[in-house]
Amino acid sequence: MASRIVRAACPHDCPDTCALLVTVEDGRAVKVAGDPDHPGTQGVLCTKVSRYTERTYHPDRLLTPMKRIGRKGEGKFAPISWDEALDTIATRLQAIAARDPQAIVPYSYAGTMGLVQGESMAARFFNKLGASRLDRTICASAGATALRYTYGASVGMDMEHVVDARLVIIWGGNPIASNLHFWTRAQEAKRRGATLVAIDPYRSLSAEKCHRHIAPMPGTDGALALALIHVLIRDDLLDHDYIERHTVGFEALRERAQAYTPARAAEICGIPAEDIEWLAGLYGQLAVRERQPVAIRLNYGMQRVHGGGQAVRAVACLPSLVGAWRQPAGGLQLSTSGFFPINEAALQRPDLLPGWPQTLPRIVNMSTIGDALLAEPAPGAPRIEAVVVYNSNPVAVAPESGKVAAGFAREDLFTVVLEHFRTDTADYADILLPATTQLEHTDVHKAYGHTYLLANNAAIAPMGEALPNTEIFRRLAQRLGFTEACFADSDEAIAAQAIIPGDARAAGISWESLKEQGWQKLALPAAPFAEGGFPTASGKCQFYSEPMARDGLDPLPDYVPQYEAPLTAPELAARYPLAMISPPARNFLNSSFVNVDSLRATEGEPHLDIHPADAAERGIVHGAMVRVFNDRGSMVARARVTDRARRGLVVGLSIWWKKLASDGKNANELTSQRLTDLGRAPVFYDCLVQVEACTEGAVLPA
Ligand SMILES: Nc1nc2c(c(=O)[nH]1)N[C@H]1C(S)=C(S)[C@@H](COP(=O)(O)OP(=O)(O)OC[C@H]3O[C@@H](n4cnc5c(=O)[nH]c(N)nc54)[C@H](O)[C@@H]3O)O[C@H]1N2
Ligand SMILES: Nc1nc2c(c(=O)[nH]1)N[C@H]1C(S)=C(S)[C@@H](COP(=O)(O)OP(=O)(O)OC[C@H]3O[C@@H](n4cnc5c(=O)[nH]c(N)nc54)[C@H](O)[C@@H]3O)O[C@H]1N2
Ligand code: SF4
Ligand SMILES: [Mo]
């Protein structure tokens, strides 16, 4: 039997970006394992991706192009040839573009994080076409904007060193589910004597294993962080030298934090003031008095609320106040993606945009796609006539899902979906195109939780008639008569363009070396900001941000209250008194893997975790079916009565495929299309609901 091992990379939207070893026997991938030599992966994969062959060889894989033969959303399709599919798409897009290309909207996110199969040929195609530009805000843009204003880019400490930290604060993240390889290191730090603290409204799988769990209400982290700053300043737990040399605006920050006494923050957050005193004391004592490393693993869970951006700003100030950056095992990490010297201009070719660089096509925010599809367009802007979806499943993942589905159901909308499976979104496609998976195509990857570049070598031939995203857009470009040389680039040629030539951080790294070795680490100092040197204009941490003042924003971090909470929306809170969050389920990756039977079986069915007191008030018993609802919509779930959910909070782990839920709905029926204070991002976790036991007739069998 001919057996070989292929070096690959996990494509999923996960900070760990694991290095994979794919065993191929007679042209079939038989095993996907973690590379034991890659310091991040350490030979271990999460359950989802260790089952990657189940996903690749899934009997439901899309294997031919198809056209819709049923109603939109019904999911009835008939196979067609690639020529018919691409000719139909080219003809339709050309006719729309002749009127106004901005009526065409590409919709994509991080189904694959690959730089080649993500936004390379696709971006070139839509840029040349002059389509609307997509504001890719659905996940991280509140936090990314906050980091940019504070530190200049999405940069932070290297978690390879966190094993040596004495205090690890896990803030708004559940790493056992969503950042497994960091969790392994945090466990090692714990064995070496570190204190682990979770800040999370929910007692997640990770929070329950920390020494201490602080559970603020969702959307109140800004107040908590400012109170920590208040105590650090009050008790002079400060690294005055670091502040003096490497920060801007300390006096202004001191004034701002003055108002956030532990007592006031405790009231806003719904936690004991003592928790705040304790955490600030420990953080400052270790970092300043004992010069020990203290680390914060901030995650995106806490920025999916109205004040998410400013909350990230407030938390991000902490390591500079105590000089935690001085040590490799200290500082903060939300994302490391800003370290990578990626040549986006070469990959995406924004210079192909009509009007570049002065008058660019309009921007459509992916987080408000429901309204964008349904509402009357702004004066002078065209109504959306076509959407091309790839690497995303908006009908399941975008907020206020009822409106998203209604938008995609528009009879006059032409929808193309490139997919592996018949997702909730695929059901609305006019033309559905089969895309290759990571085992079937070439790619190159950066990461947002470590600092390695990785290659993904194709392990097997494409399944059925599936094609890589790149090839689909290459063929469309040809049909539309795009003659620029970049439309003929092979995937290997694109991969070779990904790294900025001559950048010192990527010294010795090329596509050729990556392909061969699988992964290589960027050349960065162990403690990149020990002596400041942040990628801001001044090189300093901006407690006070002049650019924010210029942009008409509050230049100092603050607590920006939730849209939906008793204090800010009392009338709404009277009808919908419970805060709902819908963070990632361990065995799904966003809405990917929900259709892999073994993984869905582990998650069981849509659940709603509710505190015993909140359940009792509503006559809800453990295991009962409940209806969760607000003015935007409703969904049915099985109640788990548990104090994992704090009082006033309900938790529905996500993101379910709507059609695989008993009522055809998921948590995004309830979420709103309002946006964060910074970064125009969605507020999935700023959402009030009411819950009631299902009436007899609505109770479904277990
Ligand atoms: N298994 C799995 N892994 C994933 C994903 C997945 O769907 N499944 N998704 C991937 C993606 S796209 C991303 S963006 C990343 C990161 O995804 P994140 O959204 O950071 O997800 P989690 O790490 O699960 O952390 C969310 C935690 O934040 C808590 N939380 C919710 N609201 C608040 C709040 O207001 N304040 C605080 N302090 N905590 C809050 C939740 O209770 C939850 O435990 O994970 C990636 N990894
Ligand atoms: N309620 C609620 N909603 C949320 C969140 C939440 O926590 N709660 N999290 C939000 C976050 S953080 C994110 S990042 C978004 C994620 O939203 P999405 O980025 O849309 O993620 P997925 O749901 O995994 O959908 C990705 C799709 O891309 C497809 N795909 C994968 N690889 C390829 C490929 O190579 N080619 C093509 N053509 N398709 C491919 C997969 O089959 C999958 O269906 O969801 C957001 N929505
Ligand atoms: S999803 Fe994350 S933990 Fe799982 S294999 Fe991929 S990168 Fe690793
Ligand atoms: Mo995300």
TrEMBL record:
Needed co-factor(s): Mo-bis(molybdopterin guanine dinucleotide)
Catalytic activity, EC: 1.2.1.2
Lineage top rank: taxon: Bacteria
Domain 4Fe-4S Mo/W bis-MGD-type residue range list: 3-60
InterPro entries found in the cross-reference section: Asp_de-COase-like_dom_sf, MoPterin_dinucl-bd_dom, Mopterin_OxRdtase, Mopterin_OxRdtase_4Fe-4S_dom, Mopterin_OxRdtase_prok_CS, Prok_Mopterin_Oxidored, YoaE_C
Molecular function (Gene Ontology), one example: iron-sulfur cluster binding
Family annotation (Pfam families): Molybdop_Fe4S4, Molybdopterin, Molydop_binding
Alphabetically ordered keywords of this record: Iron, Iron-sulfur, Metal-binding, Molybdenum, Oxidoreductase
Annotated family: Belongs to the prokaryotic molybdopterin-containing oxidoreductase family.
Protein's name according to its UniProt entry: Molybdopterin oxidoreductase
Organism: Cupriavidus necator (strain ATCC 17699 / DSM 428 / KCTC 22496 / NCIMB 10442 / H16 / Stanier 337) (Ralstonia eutropha)
Phylogenetic placement of the source organism: Bacteria, Pseudomonadati, Pseudomonadota, Betaproteobacteria, Burkholderiales
